[in-house]
Amino acid sequence: MKEKDYIQKAKEHFGKLLEKQFARIEKMKAEEEFIDYSKLEQLVIGIVGGDGIGPYITEEARKIIEFLLADDIKAGKIVIKNIDGLTIENRARQNKAIPDDVLGELKKCHVILKGPTTTPRAGDPWPNIESANVAMRKELDLFANVRPVQVPEEGIDWVFYRENTEGAYALGSDGIMVNDDLAIDFTVTTYEGSYRIIKAAFDYARKSGKNKLTVVTKANVVKTTDGLFLDIAKEIAKDYPEVEWDDWYIDIMTAKLIDEKRRQDFKVFVLPNLYGDILTDEAAEFQGGVGTAGSANIGKSYAMFEAIHGSAPRMVQEGRAQYADPSSIIRAAGMLLEHIGYQEEASRLQMALDICGNYEKKIVMTGRDTGATGGEYAEYLMDTLQDKNLKERWEDYRAGK
Ligand code: IPM
Ligand code: MG
User: Fold this and answer.
1) Does 114 reside within a domain?
2) pLDDT for 287 beyond 80
3) Quick one: which of 59, 64, 188, 381 is 20 to 30 A from 4 by CA?
4) Nearest CA, atom 10, ligand 1
């Protein structure tokens, strides 16, 4: 082909991308308010195992949810639904990030607890399908990725509001290989998409009483898209006079998170997708690594909760899957409970997780047969949850008694 033919082909490809983005913007404009769970007669929680150790650890999380919500499950107010088929084998067979029947099942739920799913990359034995995570965020329009990080001893109490459907991810699988010499990817920022995530972050900063918000971009270089994101933040900030806000560039922000003198001043962050992806891994490291972090993916109609560690296929191959540590997916289950209005249960679960995993440690998991199984760990948690003095016990541990 000649140069002008490559250009023509690329233009056509680009035109189609624009059409899709305009359609997405229309959808966002037509969006309603956040669903009100308290008004539902029946709330459906979907449990998706995923790949590798996923089915093992989500099974333990399911037990904990069923334990904590036993009365409402019996009364029919809560329904727990297992959803199979979001495995790499099935996705590869159907050549789809999320097979249609699985997506149909997901859409019948209000909230979802999801185990880790394998993301194929170039060179893997799998077809290069889009990440199931990324696809689910797009399909269910889960635009707010909320990731808390806490290290109380160091005064760290951060909550990240990562934009979850746009930026470098929106067209991450739709770049243009113009010819052998030229590859182009896109980053997408829309007014609607930025507005809703920034507003959600301001709302949270206000509602939580933290009253402090940091907007992170690279608007000095990525002028058009990040520039728009920052402009919208400035506009929204006017409606939140009680929230003190500032803006940082992603490079210096990354550095400031390790500055012991400054980092406890930051409280709530809002940032475009890729910066949020990177910064939240860095942040989680202070708390003990990405394996310890839970993550909420929230949209107006659906919400999905997950652990942010991988599927550890090697543990399955070596026959050690039952020793995989379920604590971060159980923490994610705690976020789910809080999101649907079970604050009391969620906070008891957080305390039990702290006691069993960080303080008392009567049972320890090592990832192999030298330690406990996930099932034994879940039993330990449920025993602890039954303690009438759970809160006192937790406070004593925290005070170092
Ligand atoms: C995350 C993960 C995903 C992402 C991957 C698995 C596609 O890193 O949830 O942060 O990049 O968003
Ligand atoms: Mg990530």
Assistant:
1) yes
2) yes
3) 188
4) 277
Residue 228, in any domain of the structure: no
Lowest mean pLDDT among 10-14, 35-39, 270-274, 307-311: 307-311
Q: How far is the CA of 76 from the centre of ligand 2 (A)?
A: 36
The reported pLDDT for the residue numbered 125 is 85
Number of domains in the chain: 1
> For the residues 109-118, what does the mean pLDDT come to?
96
Q: Is the pLDDT of residue 292 over 80?
A: no
* Residue 160, pLDDT score: 97
The pick from 88, 131, 164, 281 for probing ligand 1's pocket by mutation, whose C-beta has the most ligand atoms within 8 angstroms, reads: 131
Which ligand 1 atom is at minimum distance from the Cα of 280?
10
**How many other C-beta atoms lie within 10 A of the C-beta of residue 162?**
27
- Average pLDDT rounded to a whole number, residues 64-80: 98
Across the chain, what does the average pLDDT equal?
95
Per residue in 251-265, pLDDT (tens digit) is 999 999 999 999 999
Tokens for 315, please give them.
């543990």
H-type alpha helices, 238-342: 250-256, 273-286, 313-317, 327-339
Give the lowest-confidence range in 76-85, 146-155, 275-284, 377-386: 146-155
In a domain, 90, yes or no: yes
Best CA proximity match to 273, nearest among 195, 201, 187, 332: 187
C-alpha distance from residue 110 to each of 52, 134, 301, 347 (Å):
25, 18, 7, 21
State the ligand closest to the CA atom of 163.
1
Secondary structure percentages of the chain, helix, strand, coil, to 5: 50, 15, 35
Retrieve residue 224's tokens.
Answer: 């058009």
User: Who lines ligand 1 at CB under 6 A?
Assistant: 119, 131, 133-134, 277, 308
Containing structural domain, residue 46? 31-142+299-398
Q: How far is the CA of 310 from the centre of ligand 2 (A)?
A: 10
Q: Is residue 84 part of a domain?
A: yes
Find the CATH number of the domain harbouring 130.
3.40.718.10
Q: 395 alpha carbon to ligand 2 midpoint, in Å?
A: 32
